[in-house]
From TrEMBL:
This is TIGR03086 family protein. The lineage of its organism: Bacteria, Bacillati, Actinomycetota, Actinomycetes, Pseudonocardiales. It comes from the Bacteria. SUPFAM superfamilies: DinB/YfiT-like putative metalloenzymes. InterPro entries: DinB/YfiT-like.
Length: 124
């Protein structure tokens, strides 16, 4: 199945909605879970990583298509906290690049993007 258009795009949106719904209750963030494999992770860790994935890749798509995307303040604040807490491990595992310096007073999203090694000033 081509997941880049038509039914594929609908499929992606349904999976994003499904994932967001699954993590929308406080109990989702307790106990252990997996992220597509057999390995178990504390739910708080998995949820944090999913938050990073959603936020960062939405930013990637918005920038690549020269469109605007918006996030609520709570999500951005949470994502920055998780990125800050996991940055060293993310770099060790090759998931994050070297941090890009963010300008003083940068918005939360720009600081988050910079911490994982993307340049928040980048445009196509």
């Amino acid at each position: 199945m081509d997941r880049t258009s038509g039914d594929g795009a609908k499929y992606l949106l349904s999976q994003l909605d499904r994932t967001a719904h699954a993590w929308n209750t406080p109990t989702s963030w307790t106990g252990k879970t997996h992220m597509g494999g057999a390995a178990q992770y504390p739910a708080e860790v998995a949820g944090g990583l999913i938050t990073i994935e959603f936020t960062v890749h939405a930013w990637d798509l918005a920038r690549a298509t020269d469109t605007e995307a918006t996030w609520d303040t709570g999500t951005l604040n949470h994502t920055l906290v998780v990125v800050t807490r996991t940055a060293a491990t993310g770099r060790e595992r090759g998931a994050f690049a070297v941090e890009v310096p963010a300008t003083e007073g940068s918005p939360t999203l720009a600081r988050t993007i910079a911490k994982i090694g993307r340049d928040p000033r980048w445009h196509p």
